[in-house]
Write a structure and sequence with these properties.
260 residues, mainly alpha, 5 strands, disordered C terminus
Length: 260
C-alpha cells in the first residue's frame, strides 16, 4: 500500500486558495444565519437557505481547489462527475439541516452544538464522497485511525466556529468564526487525504471521468464568483434594514390562524 503522493503538485498555492474559499463561504453563510436571527417567516427561511448554500458551496469549492494538487505515482487521476456533484449535494443538504436547527432553536448554545455536529458531518461526508469519485489504475482504502481523526477535527472545529459566531456580537466574531470554519474544512480535507492508501495496479486503459483541470476548474470559477458576489450582497444588506423590512412585511399581513 502507498499513500497518496504530491498533495501540492502546483505548489502550496492550492492549499492557500482552498482555505480562502472555505473561509469566504463560511463567513458569508454565518452572516446570513446571524441575519436570520433578526427576522421571521419566509425572510428567515430565505436567509437560512442562503447561509447553507454559502457554507456548503464554500467547503465544496475548497475541496475542488485542493484536489487540483492531487497526483499519484504510477497512475493518472480522474474523477467521476456524478459522485463529485453528489458530494456538493451532501455538503449543502447536511449543512442545511444544521443551519435550520440553529435558526429555530431557542438556545444559541444548543444551536451551536447541533449546528457544529451537522456542519462537521457535512464536511466529512462531502470529502469522502468526493474522494470516492477518484479513478486510478489501482484500489483505494483508508487508515481508520486517521479517518477518525478527520471526523473529530471537523466536528470539533466546526462547533467552536459556530459558538464564536453566535455567542459573540459583531462582525469581528464572524471573521474569527469564518477562519475557524475554514480551518476545520481544510484540515479535515488534508487529514482525509493523508488517510488514503493506494495499491497501484499497472494498466493502460483509459480511465473514466474527467481530469481535475477539465472538470474542476470551471466549477471553481462558477462557485468562486457566486461566493464573492453573494458576499458583496450580504455586506450591503445591514441587519437593521432586514429587521425593518421584516416588521413592515408583518404589518401588511394578517396573523396566521392560531398566531398570537
Amino acid at each position: 500500500m502507498e499513500h497518496l503522493h504530491h498533495f501540492f503538485q502546483y505548489g502550496p498555492i492550492t492549499a492557500v486558495v482552498a482555505y480562502i474559499m472555505a473561509c469566504v463561504g463560511a463567513g458569508l453563510g454565518l452572516r446570513c444565519v446571524v441575519r436570520a436571527f433578526a427576522t421571521t417567516g419566509s425572510t428567515k427561511r430565505s436567509w437560512l437557505i442562503t447561509g447553507a448554500l454559502a457554507i456548503g458551496s464554500g467547503i465544496w469549492t475548497m475541496h475542488l481547489v485542493a484536489i487540483l494538487g492531487f497526483a499519484v505515482d504510477g497512475s493518472p487521476v480522474r474523477f467521476d462527475v456524478g459522485f463529485t456533484l453528489l458530494s456538493l449535494l451532501v455538503a449543502i443538504v447536511v449543512v442545511l439541516i444544521g443551519v435550520f436547527a440553529v435558526g429555530y432553536t431557542r438556545s444559541r448554545v444548543h444551536g451551536a452544538i447541533i449546528g457544529g455536529i451537522s456542519t462537521g458531518v457535512a464536511i466529512v461526508g462531502m470529502h469522502y464522497v468526493g474522494m470516492s469519485a477518484m479513478q486510478i489504475h489501482g484500489t483505494l482504502s483508508y487508515d481508520i485511525a486517521t479517518v477518525g481523526l478527520s471526523v473529530v477535527v471537523a466536528i470539533g472545529a466546526a462547533t467552536v466556529a459556530l459558538a464564536v459566531a453566535f455567542l459573540t456580537d459583531g462582525f469581528r466574531g464572524t471573521i474569527v468564526a469564518a477562519l475557524l470554519m475554514g480551518a476545520a474544512a481544510s484540515i479535515t480535507e488534508y487529514t482525509g487525504i493523508a488517510a488514503l492508501q493506494i495499491e497501484i495496479i499497472p494498466g493502460t486503459s483509459v480511465l473514466p471521468g474527467a481530469s481535475a483541470v477539465e472538470f474542476v476548474f470551471p466549477f471553481i470559477v462558477v462557485f468562486g464568483s457566486f461566493l464573492f458576489l453573494s458576499s458583496a450582497f450580504v455586506a450591503l444588506s445591514p441587519i437593521k434594514t432586514t429587521r425593518m423590512a421584516t416588521v413592515g412585511a408583518g404589518a401588511n399581513h394578517e396573523p396566521e390562524p392560531g398566531g398570537l
